[in-house]
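This is your field. Have a critical look at both lines of this record:
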Amino acid sequence: MAAQLGREPLVPFTVVARCGPGHPLVIRNHPVDAKGNPFPTLYWLTCPETIRAVARLESEGWIKRLEAEAEVDPDLRTGLRRAHEEYAAERGALVAGSEQRGGVGGAARGVKCLHAHYAYYVGGGPDPIGKWVADRLKESDQLHYEKPSRRLGTIDLGTNSIRLLVARFTHGEADLQDLARDMVITRIGQGVDQTHRLAPAALRRTLDVLERYCRRARALDVERIHLAATSAVRDAANRDDLANEVQRLTGEPMEVLSGEEEAERSFVGATHGLAEAADVPGPYLVLDIGGGSTEFVLGQDGPALARSTNMGSVRLTERFVHTDPPSYEELDALEAEITDILAGVEDHVAVHDARTLVAVAGTATTMQAIAMGLPEYDPEQLHRTRLSRLDADRVFRLLADMTVEERREIPVMAPGREDVIPAGAAILTSVMHRWGFTEALVSETDILDGLAYAMVEGAPGSVG
């Protein structure tokens, strides 16, 4: 970012989307800088080549021409107003009061600058001006990428979170290249363990994010968007309500993965390229702690044995944790349930054959981020680092002793994870102690990447 901007960034940011060559295309800035001053541009276009291409449109007078068109076109005017309102609301959700700074690029109405509108559109915003810019760039072929490639969007709908990956696949290359990766905790599985139904509010939260994800994926020129759902949706009797909306938004039928298919995809994503690392011996036991289920899959060159269990951070929290912080009695009951389930896993998976435990998903990565003392969540610093059992125990005790509000203040804690992470941490530490693992390899790649590889290569064979 410093190279693109010609200076150090002034506020914390996340990369929302990348160009074909791999460098940042659009970033999302924090609304307030370190001194407390407002920063009006939430979504910022940073790719120099794209900046020049958009500037050419501005030099042709398109800001005034689009302003004039919005005056006479009620649909464009309404869409532009919505873009400003949602942009301001998103900024306000990050820092209370900052919505007063206006909409796209700090404007309250009209067309601000084409760069700002395009950046918001690429970020998934409902911006008709940004879409117009994207269409013009595509028509004029002003942007070129080095190699022919395919762009695909995949979405993992879990019990606690919904995640997006837009990836670029180049023929003859084994690895995917991230163009966008995102995660939002919407907890579609709220209450499903008891009711076996998706709650209307949880469904609405999830669909709002899904709509934004689909806009972002299409702004990045994907040829397909595929959504796969896991534990909560498997258990929900009214999942057709979701399936109809998924079909409408993505253009493809929703895939509901079985527990074994979920384990298989997690293994592929977590271990892709791992065999080339000399210091990570196989066989691998991949542990995927989700909100509604936890998967265990053993293999080396591919998944061999797998087991999916109805044990996840949300499910166990709803069943066993009713005080804040959890009482000793609740933690004892929680750990007893985990112990019983792990005993059943041993009947199906030869867990003691594994030489490396690979832990994926938000519980493990967040625990490692806390153990490392990161000031903010950074996937690149976390990926394929080792979490010792001593550190896992320490972080579990810390989390279990804190209130939900105290956990929420941890810098690396994703909003929506703070109430369920003690249950997830109990699963991880129980696995390490019961099966003798002194450390876990923490992986940022997981089922989401496995789903993407399956879209290109075809799903691998079923496991036992």
